[in-house]
Amino acid sequence: MKHHSQQAASRFDDWADSYSEGRISSWFRFYQSMAMSQLKIAEGCGFLDVGCGTGWAVRQAAKQLQVGKACGIDISAKMIENAVAETSEAHNIEFQIGDAEAIPYPDESFSSIICTFSIHHYQNPVSALSEMKRVLKPDGSIVILDSARDVSFAIWLQDRGRRYFEKSHVKYYTTKEMTDLIAKAQLQLIGDITTINKFMDHNKVFTGLMLLSCTK
Ligand SMILES: C[S@@+](CC[C@H](N)C(=O)[O-])C[C@H]1O[C@@H](n2cnc3c(N)ncnc32)[C@H](O)[C@@H]1O
Question: Could you report the per-residue pLDDT of 148-162, keeping only the tens digit for each?
Fold first, then answer.
């Protein structure tokens, strides 16, 4: 495992036991649901959550999927261990330890891919987006959701602090930077980027997010 990925794995191993029931777990779930609603999961074949944490979105997708598996990969072994423990026998769910920059699935495996609150940890986000593109079926879609530096000044400030104090944090992107990353990975943006700027939302003081869909 690369040094930076090891740092992310270690930080999230430490968070894994309190992740699903933590103070802002409802915030994560609310916005993951919003990201998933951009996808036609039930009509497609296969779903992948990149940086799946304890796997809540994977379990939701598995209920909708008619064909293929709902899969989750995460760099943190402890997140994956807990994702498996929180999943009661669903025949169409699979979790694996894996790096977003080397997704452990063959080409064109999934119609629907999400990556929520995770891309700001990747050392090379273009490699990760290119990997998502590789495992995406030709008519499939990818939804990215993350904090955005230009949506809220509080998020801009948090980014400065986290770059300094939090080893796994690479950066919160601006909407323009994210558009450029999508273009570099040779993905096509579908529609406009949605931005969300809120104060005191689901136990989180500042919310400053971007949500976007793209395809091959
Ligand atoms: C804040 S959590 C988000 C989890 C989940 N997507 C959600 O929305 O609740 C970020 C997750 O990204 C994972 N992660 C960080 N770097 C990664 C990488 N290079 N490859 C795969 N997962 C990674 C972390 O281990 C962590 O579980």
Answer: 999 999 999 999 999
What does each C-alpha distance from 134 to 91, 111, 128 come to in angstroms?
A: 25, 11, 10
Q: What is the mean pLDDT of residues 65-86?
A: 97
Q: Please indicate whether residue 117, judged by its CB atom, sits closer than 6 Å to ligand 1.
A: yes
CA of 40 to the centre of ligand 1 (A): 23
Q: How confident is the model at residue 3 (pLDDT cuts 50, 70, 90)?
A: confident
Rg, C-alpha atoms of the chain: 16
pLDDT of 32-72, one tens digit each? 999 999 999 999 999 999 999 999 999 999 999 999 999 99
Residues 6+ apart with CB under 8 A from 47: 39, 41, 58, 61, 62, 65, 68, 69, 70, 71, 110, 111, 112, 113, 114
Ligand 1, atom nearest to 19 Cα: 9
CATH class, range 3-215: alpha beta
Kindly list the distances between the CA atom of residue 68 and the CA atoms of 60, 97, 100, 103, 111, in Å, as whole numbers in the listed order.
14, 19, 20, 17, 9
- Ligand 1: residue whose CA is nearest its atom 3: 117
Structural element, H or E, at residue 72: strand 67-74
> Ligand 1 in contact with 131 (CB < 6 A)?
no
